[in-house]
Task: structure prediction
Amino acid sequence: MELTGEGWTLRGSGDTGEIGEIGDIEVPAVVPGCAHTDLMRAGVIPDPFLGTNEAEAQWVGLTDWEYSREFDLASRPDGSRVHLVLDGLQTVATVLVNGIEVGNTRNMHRRYRLDVTDAVRSGTNELAVRFASSAQAMLDAAGDDPLPYDWTYPYNELRTMACEGGWDWGPTLVTAGIWRDVRLEVWDTARADVDVTTTLDEDLRCGTLVVGLDVEGGPCEAEVVVAGYMERFPISSTGRQKLSVDVPSPDVWWPRGYGSPTQYDATVRLLDATGRILQETHHRVGFRHIAIDTTPDEHGRAFTLRVNGRPVFCKGANWIPDDLFVSRMTPARYEERIDQACAANMNTLRVWGGGIYEDEAFYAACDERGVLVWQDFMFACAAYPEEEPLRSEVVAEADDVVRRLAAHPSVVVWNGANENLLGHEDWGWRAQIRDRTWGEGYYRELLPDAVEAHAPGAVYVVNSPVASEPGVHPQVPGDGPTHLWDTWNLLDYAHYRDQIPRFAAEFGWQAPATRATLTEALGTLPDRPDDPALLAHQKQPGGERNLVDRLKGRFPDPAGIATDTDRWHLATSLNQAHALRTAVEHHRSWWPRTAGSLIWQLNDVWPALSWSLIDHGGRPKPAWYAVRGAFADHLVTLQPREAGLSAVLVNDTDEPWTGELALRRVHVTDGEVARTEGEFIVPARSVLTLPVGPRITQAGRRREELVVAETEGADRAVHAFVRDDGVRWPVPDVKYSVERKEDHALVHVTAEVALGDVIVEAPGMRADTALLTLLPGESGTVVLRPEREGARLPGEDAVSLHTRNGFFHD
Ligand code: BMA
Result:
């Protein structure tokens, strides 16, 4: 019996400590949900994502809350048992049935199954879940000598979503609630918790479905069906059992770009002695062999993911919760976001360790699309105590979550924590930790043991970043996954080229959310970017300064840009696009030495000024379009190399790539000055580096000429001879016309002179392309489609066109 949906009541206890009495609150509630979403729906609080409302919603996290409802239970068979199954409680809760305490919880990341047989009765029952304030629980557990952590509350003392207490891209909104499904299960004879996973040997011949069962009751029989094979196993004892069924020569599961992500149905049934089905679970599984190649070489050590023996360049991004109120996520929203990652030519998502283990729908969508998932355990940027009471929670959580996700072929990498080894080395933690534990035992022993026990087909990485040997600094060059943050924090983005990482697991560049999303969040866009309402959505200390500082050398007059929201919005958005393109193209140009490029961050928890590619409204920022080109299977890029400027062609497909490469020197108003052409062939999964000759690289008018590299089917690469802010972009001389079709509009743009970074916008519309470079005399077409079906198509006056050129002229 599902206990989700309406019919719940939320009550505030009124004990709000330092912030004073709130009085009695009683509002209708919805499960899954949380106090904030229920209070918003009832009109008690305004939406904390809008304007500066976050500050006024803080009391919610310091309050104790009770969720309650009634449910009816029909009479049930003699000897049957009743379980209350709670898939997610956020976080510190006491569960009562008819006033009888049936469970206590302190872990948002676990599922709970409570035996309530002795508490329920036939007829009407009362279910209550009493939440103590997580914020208060964290403060109490940490006391006055906390272990190091970031942001507002010591999340390292409580197994809750770390970023609910704030992060450098999200608000502080600690909440409480039943955030996943709840149901009652009545069973007799036998039942089991069922987990399934697969293994595949190295030569891809022998697949095995491994079924784990935690059996209660019995005896019974288990029937396992997979890929047309069926086996039965007698179950004579309770507790943990492992069964396996071999699947010879299965069609293997491939990531995107390598083959089909083949999946098989697997069914596990429990039968009683008469053959009656007691329980049946369905799973979608896939067979793949996963390894990380860490062979030493002249540059250090490889860090290359191998899927079914094939080395893969991981192109992707870091995933954070897509809504800080995580109960609001729906399968459709997961699919939309993952489709946007796929449309940007990504094959990998890293689920970052300060959020949540995502919903089944997330992993199922990745399975089906062949997206590789790098799954962090939920530990981030803090020292975690390894003693009780936390330790037992970590043990139970690791066991539960690995078993929950082990069925998914997409989940190929498990990672101990985000930046905790790094923090211990570099962030001055040692003096604060003294002789206390700080989590290393989790990352080096407890968590890898859980992965080995329940997901033997996946690989484990100790931390991100990490070096291959204990005792070596986690960011040692040339070894292990690396986080590249100095660039955004301190330097121009050209410095991404200073390092050739083996696997870039994080690097990012901020830009504001799209104008549409910011306008929704703030009512109107303020005139100045330092407006308090706008700054309330910038959570990185100094982030607003970085946004402007990083314009230096890229745009004329950054200080002037910083006084005008329109110009600031466009310049910082373009800067993000170019910074990320620079990093990704550099990484890809060094394949196979570099084998991964994961952008920080794909998405947002709220309307933000953040590193995301897609904002909280689901709208792609200009950077998303740039990244789509940079991650394309066929890439042409211009890279400074020792021998001088080089055209680098990257072929991330299984077919050789042949074509004609045109290298041109083009004057911004006069057009082509010099041209060379040549045929090329790039073998499958390879990189070809071609030095660009002096006819092209020796410019007569260095500030007015550009090098352009192009071939059919790839984004054009453009290189300037001087610093970006010294290029003499001409006055934008541009004509455009709008042609309305049935369900989309075509915007035809003609450039009389070179136009940089052409962006076409219209309210309520999404463009198919952005950041075009048009050379003198060229035309381009941008397709605008309505964000919502049926919306009116724009006429000429509703369309606006932006260029880089605009910054070079008043
Ligand atoms: C890394 C991440 C996050 C953070 C990001 C941007 O440290 O792991 O913790 O949000 O950088 O600062």
